[in-house]
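I am writing to request your help with a piece of structural work I have in hand. The matter concerns a single protein, recorded as an amino acid sequence and a row of backbone structure tokens. Could you please explain, in whatever detail you think fit, how the structure tokens follow from the sequence? Thank you for your consideration; the sequence and its tokens are set out here:
>
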Amino acid sequence: MNIELYYQEKGSGEPFIFLHGNGEDSSYFKNQIDYFQSKYRVIALDTRGHGKSPRGDAPFTIEQFSYDLYDFMKVHRISNAVILGFSDGANIAMKFAMKHSDMVKALILNGGNLNAGGVKRTTQIPIEIGYKIAKRFAVKSQDAKKNAEMLGLMVNDPNIEPCKLSQITSPTLVICGTKDMIKESHTKEIAGSIPNAKLTIIEGNHFIANECPAEFNQAVDSFLRTV
């Protein structure tokens, strides 16, 4: 059953959809909303079970979130949009663009990964430990159940085969930080697997859009001018 996703909308013109990361909400993109609203109809979503969007009864998976995006675009009569995804949002965007490239005018993937192996072990090991603990207490505690679902997204998802990324035909920018928690070799594999994708690496960590907005926005803006 479809749910109604919460979203922020500003500006007018061509739709530009923002998809946040795990455990976050649309406010993560405050600096991008402020910057791009003068040029686009900016739409920042809260993913299912995040922010102000309901959890619903459907599976809590990256695949399901990509179906939610499709439903959202259909309901709001958005036939085609620029889509920027960060972290799990980038994974949602990849899953979506693999099936619906015709609905993606341009794709910006920031800090995405194809599987848990793409994350540096120093980051991934505590996530896996937290997931096992939360899963154990999920039967007794709603908070633990929610935590297990969130961490589960980073342990069990998104399971994208690199060869399948060739299905993405939209102009694509893959962007990450020099100190990202995603292995640089993994990010380069994503960029290399998407036809004609551009790769940009800027100074910073995983959260460059939020912490280095000037450089990030400029890189995205420059790319979009070529589309």
User: Anything to note?
Assistant: The domain at 7-115+159-224 is CATH 3.40.50.1820 (Rossmann fold).
